[in-house]
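In the design runs reported in the main text, the only information available to the sequence generator was the tokenized backbone. The following block is the verbatim input for one such run; it is reproduced so that readers can re-run the procedure and compare outputs position by position.
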């Protein structure tokens, strides 16, 4: 079994080492990850800058490719150039912070997994809820258990799961729930500051939506200290709206409209 590991917190982050260690003995593991933190870059890719890639040794843990790009860049480059053989699975994380609710759309961790899924490779994004001290020892054990179940279930081509692990410093998760993402935006707020030159700065300082407003969701599961598993798809077309707007009588002959007459 071949596994590609990536993340969005950068190749030096403790979370990716935990994920590597979670699966290292299960097969051949390649690590291709951003050289620097890329949280919240979403599914960004680099098209105006070349991708610098170099081998790095990360502590006593592993050697991998550090890429000056986004998580999606890393997976593309891995698939097309860096790997000797295509992976059977792509794993992304373990992110420092949950990717629940609408954060799925901003998440570089999820993008790393979904880029793998675009290639047809079953993929999982792992994220751990923030706490004062992130417990990657327990999160590693959780990620390993989830991955082993996933791999032995022979997931279909392109299946992509987002897995959120509750903060493990409070103890082990109480179990696993398969739930949809909450359709809840962050409650955005900006902190306004002035620098020494008197220039204005805005820092995004949002708050999580209230889990009580989103029963049976990833938000609630994490709050109740369960691991949440959400299968994701990337067909963004809204089928109901599609049939609706087809009946709207859109203009067809623009040349006639322009000539006016
Ligand atoms: Mn991150």
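Verbatim output:
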């Amino acid at each position: 079994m071949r596994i590609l590991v990536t993340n969005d917190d950068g190749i030096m982050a403790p979370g990716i080492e935990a994920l590597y260690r979670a699966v290292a003995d299960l097969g051949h593991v390649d690590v291709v990850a951003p050289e620097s933190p890329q949280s919240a870059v979403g599914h960004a890719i680099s098209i105006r800058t070349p991708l610098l890639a170099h081998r790095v040794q990360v502590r006593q843990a592993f050697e991998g490719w550090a890429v000056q790009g986004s998580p999606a860049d890393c997976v593309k480059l891995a698939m097309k150039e860096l790997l000797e053989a295509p992976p059977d699975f792509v794993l992304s994380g373990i992110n420092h912070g949950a990717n629940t609710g609408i954060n799925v759309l901003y998440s570089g961790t999820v993008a790393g997994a979904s880029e793998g899924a675009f290639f047809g490779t079953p993929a999982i994004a792992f994220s751990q809820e923030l706490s004062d001290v992130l417990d990657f020892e327990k999160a590693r054990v959780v990620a390993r258990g989830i991955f082993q179940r996933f791999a032995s279930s022979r997931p279909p081509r392109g299946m992509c799961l987002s897995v959120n692990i509750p903060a493990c410093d409070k103890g082990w998760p109480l179990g696993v729930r398969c739930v949809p993402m909450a359709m809840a935006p962050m409650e955005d707020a900006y902190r306004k500051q002035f620098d020494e030159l008197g220039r204005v700065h805005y820092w995004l300082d949002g708050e999580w939506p209230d889990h009580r407003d989103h029963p049976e969701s990833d938000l609630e599961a994490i709050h109740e200290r369960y691991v949440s598993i959400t299968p994701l798809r990337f067909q963004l077309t809204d089928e109901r709206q599609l049939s609706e707007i087809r009946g709207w009588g859109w203009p067809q002959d623009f040349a006639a409209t322009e000539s006016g007459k």
